Amino acid sequence: MSAGARIGVVTFPGTLDDVDASRAVRRAGAEAVPLWHADADLRGVDAVVVPGGFSYGDYLRCGAIARFSPVMTEVVAAAGRGTPVLGICNGFQVLCESGLLPGALHRNVGLNYVCRDQWLRAENTTSAWTTRYEPGAEVLVPVKHGEGNYVAEDAVLDELEGEGRVLFRYVDGNPNGSARDIAGITDARGRVAGLMPHPEHAIDPLTGPTDDGLGMFLSALDALVAA
Amino acid sequence: MTDNPATAATADVDSTGRAAATPDLQQPYRELGLKDDEYARIREILGRRPTEAELAMYSVMWSEHCSYKSSKVHLKYFGDTTTAEMREKMLAGIGENAGVVDIGDGWAVTFKLESHNHPSYVEPHEGAATGVGGIVRDIMAMGARPVAVADPLRFGPADAPDTRRVLPGVVGGVGGYGNCLGLPNIGGEVVFDACYARNPLVNAMCVGVLRAEDLHLAHASGAGNQVILFGARTGLDGIGGVSVLASETFEGDETGAGRKKLPSVQVGDPFAEKVLIECCLDLYNAGLVVGIQDLGGAGLSCATSELASAGDGGMRVDLDRVPLRARGMNPAEILSSESQERMCAVVRPEDVDAFMEVCRKWDVTATSIGEVTDGQNLQCYWHGELVLDVPPRTVAHEGPVYERPVRRPEAQDRLVADAPDALRRPSGPAELRETLLRMAASPNLASRDWVTSQYDRYVRGNTVLAQPADGGVLRVDESTNRGIAVSTDCNARYTQLDPYEGARLALAEAYRNVAVTGSTPMAVTNCLNFGSPEDPGVMWQFQQAVRGLADGCAELGIPVTGGNVSFYNQTSDAPILPTPVVGVLGAIDDVTRRIPTGIGGEEGESLILLGETRDEFGGSEWARVVHDHLGGRPPRVDLAREKLLAEVLVAGSRDGMVSAAHDLSEGGLAQALVETVLIGETGARVVLPEDADPFVWLFSESAGRALVAVPRSEELRFSEMCTARGLPWTRVGVADAGSDALEIQDVAEIPLGELRESWEGTLPALFG
Fold this sequence. Notes:
The complex is a heterodimer. By secondary structure, chain A is α/β, with parallel strands linked by helices. Chain A has 5 helices and 11 strands. Chain A has helices spanning about 20-30, 70-80, 90-95, 155-160, 215-225, and strands at about 5-10, 30-35, 45-50, 85-90, 105, 115-120, 140-145, 150, 165-170, 180-185, 190-195. In chain A, strands 2-1-3-4-11-10-9-6-7 form a 9-stranded mixed beta sheet, with helices on both faces. Chain A has a two-stranded antiparallel sheet with strand order 5-8. In chain A, helix 1 packs across helix 5 (about 215-225). Chain A is globular, with a radius of gyration of 16 Å. The N and C termini of chain A lie close together (about 10 Å). By secondary structure, chain B is α+β, with helices and mostly antiparallel strands. Chain B has 27 helices and 28 strands. In chain B, the strands form 5 sheets. In chain B, strands 8-10-7-11-9-12-13 form a 7-stranded mixed beta sheet. A 7-stranded mixed beta sheet of chain B has the order 23-25-22-26-24-27-28. The chains are: A alpha/beta, B alpha+beta. The interface between A and B is medium-sized, with 28 and 33 residues.
């Protein structure tokens, strides 16, 4: 049973999708626990979501300031202990800046911000955040970002592919020019995940294109029960 | 103050004492946009010459943009025509920062449209961005959480080189600022017309939600209450900006003898605004605010005089306490600065510590700059010297009022006489097919996806419908599914042909666009974009449009809750087409009942055209695209019919009888069909009535019509309801899930792929 699971949702100044991430956590059946950037305290949560937005205005470089926040120090430490962590969009950028995930996110190749419903193919379905997906399943989830072009050295990309750490790949058009159509990745242990698309905006066909994104949150609950 | 950069020395300051002692000093009031008689009136009010600070405050507050001096006498008509019954759901109306409407269950919604036209021509990105920022602060000043934005935009010809400069900048500015605030963009318009070539219209709408009991009106009551300025520091940006907004040239005036030239267009910082939003909401929730006012056009001049006029006493402000970000600013500059992302609150003394604590949490600079007094005047001090001492109402509310000459232009008769009847019409299937595709690909009818995909429509997770739907729909309450709908519309070609009827048509279309989502229209806002008020012909257009809109609202029984006027949208002596953009707000009990735009949601749908189709092509998109023609009369408008149509659509949504609906407007039935099949990704077979002229049926722009898809099982019940209520209806075909084409019997069969290429290809080809 996952009824008792508590999932933290981080808010930096400039975070935008924290309400959505919290709603997704609740819809999956867990308690959403707000985590404030200035507090070095994870309030005993079982997993953490770093949601999208423009943390600290993204003024220096996306996610570059957020990584130094007190809460991120705790998130990095918790990830080291195996706590599941999910970074969405700006949260993905923050996890890359924090060194929890390899690579970086550059400006979209088209230069424009892109908000659209995007088809993704589930590649890794064994990470803490993706067990609810069938291998090769295609899901429709919104993307919305100006800097989602995933880049890494070839060796890193090869390693990610070799170890099966690509979580999702863009299909039916790459919205931002990401290397090898990578939409999301995980760390070596499959506990820390980051992706540019927004599963928290696809939890109800009333307000999103589908409810395909809910599986990520349900997967995490499964992982917590199994742990 | 120790944390301020060096400020101007007090010795140089033009105090009230010095003003009294030097009555004959020549003052540059003309350069500040004041007329001789206006300056004389200021002297009369004060009993002496104004100080520099006073002159700056009066000149900016008495500008067209702030004082509505040319429009006031006409705008009064909105109030005159609003009945007690129409006011029933209105919690705040014209004169407040934004109108507020009671939508039930204790929820209130506030919404407003505003223009940022000239700045967006000068500097498209920042002009549009700060336009969004300004309207969002207006909504915050009502005590509401902003929940959505929508932007009606108008540009010169789509293929003009300057449009390629202005449009991407404006769209990037709207997106860059709005996306960063975390506000879904759920509607708006993009219109191209040669008249906007050097006069783009950038209007911005914001919608906010609050509990009805939390409504905050801007006032400064209670002697001893503190006046706190919070948000960004005050700099030299946008000084004189407000005067520029309402003048014909782009030469900003220099209050500082030309020593500091900064761009007249302000620069926005959306991150600062996002933090300010959350900070304000925390302050409201904690009950720490007595009165609040945003700082927009005219900056502190406007905020302090508005707050003081609406309160029950005077106000003292120490301008040297204002946190600055530029050196050597003088009192006049501090009062006029239009630095963005600032708010001004009135706070009880015992709440000041708690107020500051909330601001510290959000890293928002907050400074007590003065207090409410039991005097009558607004008084500003500069290092202890009195530099401004004015009755606040004379600044904010008792400015000049002009009865500008109004005259129907002589050319109007010729325009109306030039009916489109003689224009060559397509004959035969091949020409009709070609016309349909050409129209679908024309800049004004083509898909807006290139624009709207640069806007976040998902954030906050309550967007139920957004572009390309006719109206945006938002969930307000997750537990009850109560929601709202908004739409903005205006066809300025209709308004040019007949400003009275054109304004009613704009109202009818926005009203219909709300209704096709299944929502009940409740209230109206507007942004009246016109040429120079000094041109009697423009004033005639304005007067007619105001009357048409007000009379239309009275007929529909929904109030105008606020609005904005933008004059001087003209280059040399060619005004823009009169463009009264109308925004309608609706409410829907259950957002799960909203009606989508695309067909194919249910298996086996019949397509039913509601309303009557007449041979009406005056001002039509067909006349523009094919013949570059504008003349004749606009389509007839019957608001009783619009009301009936809306009632049928709402009933159809409530009882689950309608699975898709799309309003018919520019481009007529043909365009509605193109959009409904492409959005729904479902083919259709269309059969027009036997005696129908296919050209008229496909391309006429008769008002009061909508195309609906009805599940076959509901067809009888729905059509009987229409008949019983007296709404004409015509079955025009079926959705065909098995087909990949739009087939119009005896006219054309067009594969969806070909249709999509036409409809979607235009804007990307033009703008990359």
